[in-house]
Specification:
The chain is mainly α. It is built from twelve helices and no strands. The longest helix has about 40 residues.
Length: about 260
């Protein structure tokens, strides 16, 4: 497998990659502390601090460090990075309820402006489960079923763009399926469940496709190991996601029954 050659600037490149995540880590903790000091507001739960930290850590581990370096020459390590950056990190960050924290930290007027943005047509489009499905699973198919994977190994800019897409698409899909933060444009549980099953099937089929049809530049052995990791590792994270969705469905149904 070919790999990106970084001459004398690897540290700078890594800093550029992880700086956004370091910023959101610090901003989240500061916002949580500030909002917890406000009167009439409960302290921000400690477990959400932990979820946010683990989410950021998962994303950073996919971008720098041993896994990221090995991913340039080892497809299995690359696939581990995909699971960390595109599935585990988005799930953990979504469970940390960042938008809820933003709204309770801002002033009333600023929070209203943010709420109006959340109600906009643009947010409604990108948060739609079907749109998020195509961005997420469709993007992965385009990455591994075309020459894009080989191309990203030769270009730092393309490498960065692909990783950014994998993370953002994973996060959008996660928050389109489970509602942790305030969500003005909500869709029925059964609708989101069907979309999730489509994504689950698409992810599983893609892993089998990779197993049988190695991406350009990937050996058969590496493709088989990476495909298996994608299949079984993805199942674990997907199982967690569907359990959360079913739990929310159960709570909503029980609350509706008791209300009547």
């Amino acid at each position: 497998m070919t790999s990106i050659q970084i001459h004398g600037s690897s540290m700078l490149y890594e800093l550029i990659l992880i700086s956004p995540f370091m910023c959101i880590l610090v901003l989240y903790f500061v916002a949580a502390i500030v909002s917890s000091r406000k009167e009439r507001l409960k302290k921000w739960p400690l477990y959400r601090y932990g979820l946010w930290f683990l989410g950021v850590f998962s994303a950073v581990a996919a971008l720098v460090g041993p896994v990221a370096k090995q991913a340039h020459v080892d497809f299995t390590a690359h696939m581990l990075g995909h699971l960390l950056l595109g599935m585990l990190a988005p799930l953990l960050l979504a469970l940390a309820a960042p938008m809820t924290l933003v709204l309770r930290t801002l002033s009333v007027s600023s929070a209203r402006r943010v709420s109006s943005i959340l109600k906009s047509k643009f947010v409604r489009l990108i948060s739609h489960p079907i749109f998020a499905l195509f961005l997420n699973i469709g993007g992965l198919w385009f990455l591994y079923a075309t020459d894009l994977y080989a191309a990203m190994q030769q270009s730092l800019i393309l490498h960065w763009i692909v990783h950014l897409h994998v993370f953002l698409a994973g996060y959008l899909f996660t928050v389109s399926i489970i509602y942790i933060d305030p969500t003005p444009h909500q869709y029925p549980f059964i609708y989101r469940g069907i979309v999730f099953l489509l994504a689950f099937a698409g992810h599983g089929i893609l892993s089998k496709y990779i197993y049988a049809h190695p991406p350009v530049g990937v050996t058969v052995a590496d493709a088989e190991a990476g495909g298996m990791l994608m299949y079984y590792g993805g199942d674990i994270i997907d199982a967690t996601l569907i359990c959360i969705l079913f739990y929310q469905w159960f709570r909503a149904t029980r609350s509706h029954r008791f209300a009547n």
